[in-house]
Amino acid sequence: MANENPLLSPSPLPYGLPDYPSIRPEHYLPAFEEAFARQRAEIQAITTDAADPTFDNTLVALETSGRLLGDVARAFYTVSSADATDEIQQIDETLAPLMSAHNDAIQLDSALFARVKSLHDRIDELGLDDEQRYLVQRHFTEMSHAGAGLDDAAKERLTELNQRLSTLTTQFEKNLLADTNDLAVVFDDASELDGLTAGEISAASQAAVDRGLEGKLVVTLTLFTGHPYLATLTNRDSRKRILDASRARGSRGNEHDNRSVLVEIVRLRAERAELLGYPSHAAYITSDETAGSPEAVRDLLRRLAAPAARNARREQAALQAIVDAEAEPFPLEAHDWAFYTEKVRAAEYDLDRSALRPWFAAERVLQDGVFRAATELYGITFAERPDLPSYHPDARVFEVAGADGSALGLFVLDLYTRDTKRGGAWMNSIVSQSALRGTKPVVVNNLNVPKPAPGTPTLLTLDEVTTLFHEFGHALHGLFATVTYPHFAGTNVFRDFVEFPSQVNEMWIYWPEILDSYARHVETGQKLPAEVVEKLHASEAFNQGFATSEYLAAAWLDQAWHSLTRDAAEGGIDVAAFEKYALADIGLDNPVVPTRYSSTYFAHVFSGGYSAGYYSYIWSEVLDADTVEWFRENGGLRRENGERFRERLLGVGGSKDPLAAYRDFRGRDAEIRPLLERRGLVA
Asked: Which residue in 467, 453, 581, 433 sits closest to 223, CA to CA?
């Protein structure tokens, strides 16, 4: 089989980068089947070992098991999220319940759990170092949390639930991708897109060509409710068409309708939580996060929602005043907000953010912004490796070296949107670091920037610049984590901590020497004028009422769905009515400020890994804002600061309690004051 299937042999490429040109779709399922069988045999060898459980014959053996499965899975899921052709989607649907069943067979294995529990009960007698102790604790906690202590009948039902949920979440993502593509808005004439730049028009024209619609223009949709083009399109009807299409996804009554899918997901998650001894899925999820409970999450969200909603209403009044002064006034609607926000920004700060794109050429932002900040802070360097193939022609490979020139790993950047790529932006690992396995990391950043016609430079919006820095913060976490055991590799940390390093990395966007380096006019090379930089700083808190409200609304929706008990989730649920009630409950039901994600296209929680965890962004931002204050107090972009942050936070991966790691870095727990000031939520 190894001779016929490249996934069953070690990759010939550096760092274990999969040899994607030699991998065909028909290779994946046989490779998974072989990998499942190998790990089952490895687990059986552990559980049938006649010797008493030891750290080596149980935990080290468990960490050593499943290497082939991990390699195959990371290779496949990288493709299934970034280049999901019809054939890949079919494999994904077939694989979902198989992967769920395999994972359950290990996590719920009574004999394996008994050995792990024996080690956990005797942990103080084993002479373990800190990482080894934490590994024992985490495996015991995670297996307990997964249901390893249940009786056989309960385990059987749990396995059924997990398999069905894996199928449903895969179906949700498939429906969303299809409906997002179907609802891309087609325009007949460039006049309908007045206000867009030449590059944006070029991207819309190229998108039309790619769909066989030569002579027309196609605006593809982003994952979130809004769209960058809403800020500059002068045609109100065009703005409305784009926003209406975005909000319709997954709720049109067609074959891609996600309403029944998400309701069943909610119901089954609630049943699973009850089976595991929790009143709700939210209680189940947060019990093993830094938050600890859904009550702690709801307390934070409610604390922030009221001032955010008040700020949004003040912002709305300012926008309405501008509309009322026009020749033909009208009541402000959701599709008008971004456009008139830019008018207010121009009036109050003399700042037109849409006009800044010529200063944000993607290649320069990457090389002289993102990479340079990392070099200044951590001493690492980047060299593009065009000789190394990736899974798609648009995905570029860079070799990363440490300050001493030593090999650190590979970074893959996949910048552009396409119909086979899911929406949003994310980081994932193709190979994860582990001293036990002798592997170095290969990490990927995916964005969804519209690709202009050949020969036209890619110019980013300020939001896209922010996303690039943000996702690279995740990449740094994956590159820097230096652990022994695969379980702790890279970003394998608590969900409500994982966004912290990525949010911190956003601080370098406006750092003077970094901004001066990358923000150069694409044609003249001139720096972004100092007065514009001052206006950007002055306007940082501008529109934060809207931004905070739309985010909190989505986080609250996630909590509302997943706080339902099994009984409450059993009846028929009208999705639109449920959303309306939930948003009214927290006072974020302003129709002019729609939630960042409505339920039917809320991929983070219904097909991603953030169910009952979308609060993580604001939860992590408490740590982020406090850390940014520390950097400023200590001189900012200095190698000493970078090394402290790398050594005490990024470098530990998941091998230490994250809040303990934060205290080690900061010298105390995080304070919420910097976050409140950043978001304009203080009196």
From this structure: 467
Which among 373, 363, 372, 361 has a CA at the least distance from the CA of 396?
363
Q: Write out the DSSP string of 129-146.
A: -HHHHHHHHHHHHHHHHH
Alpha-helical runs (H) found in 252-356 = 259-275, 281-286, 294-324, 337-349
Tell me the pLDDT tens digit for each residue of 215-264.
999 999 999 999 999 999 999 999 999 999 999 999 999 999 999 999 99
Q: How far apart are CA 220 and CA 214, in angstroms?
A: 15
Domains and CATH numbers, the chain: 6-107+109-149 (1.20.1050), 183-238 (no CATH), 259-351+542-614 (1.10.1370.10), 358-538 (1.10.1370.40)
User: Is 629 marked active-site?
Assistant: no
The H or E element spanning position 461 is: none
3-state secondary structure 582-645: HHHHCCCCCCCCCCCCCHHHCHHHHCCCCCCCCCHHHHHHHHHHHHHHHHHHCCCCCHHHHHHH
Residue 482: name the closest of 517, 440, 442, 449 by CA.
440
Contact 411, 445 (CB under 8 A): yes
pLDDT value for 161? 98
Query: Which pTM does this prediction carry?
Result: 0.94
Residues paired with 381 in a beta bridge: 401
C-alpha–C-alpha distance, residues 88 and 96, integer Å: 12
Which of the 8 DSSP states describes residue 251? -
- For residues 491 and 496, what is the distance between their CA atoms, to the nearest angstrom? 11
The whole-number pLDDT of residue 477 equals 98
Provide the Cα torsion 189, 190, 191, 196; round to 10°: 150
Alpha-carbon torsion angle 114, 120, 121, 122, nearest 10: 110
Cα distance between residue 13 and residue 391, in whole Å: 13
| C-alpha–C-alpha distance, residues 373 and 352, integer Å | 26
Segment 530-536 shows an average pLDDT of 94
Q: In this structure, are residues 622 and 672 in contact, taking their beta carbons and an 8 Å threshold?
A: yes
Closest alpha carbon to 681 in 541, 525, 503, 486: 541
Whether 551 has a pLDDT exceeding 60, the answer reads yes
pLDDT reading at 3 higher than 80: no
Q: Are 423 and 10 in contact (CB under 8 A)?
A: no
- Over 70: is that where the pLDDT of 1 sits? no
Q: Which residue has the tokens 């007949």?
A: 188
- Residue 163 has phi, psi (to 5 degrees) of -65, -45
pLDDT digits (tens, 9 = 90+) for 84-118: 999 999 999 999 999 999 999 999 999 999 999 99
The residue annotated as part of the active site, out of 376, 471, 621, 629, is 471
Q: Which of 197, 194, 196 is nearest to 522 (CA)?
A: 197
Q: How far is CA 296 from the centre of its chain?
A: 22
Cα 241 to Cα 178, 221, 603, distances in angstroms: 18, 11, 22
Cα separation, 628 vs 393, whole angstroms = 37
Query: What's the Cα-to-Cα distance from 334 to each of 62, 238, 546, rounded to whole Å?
Result: 52, 13, 11
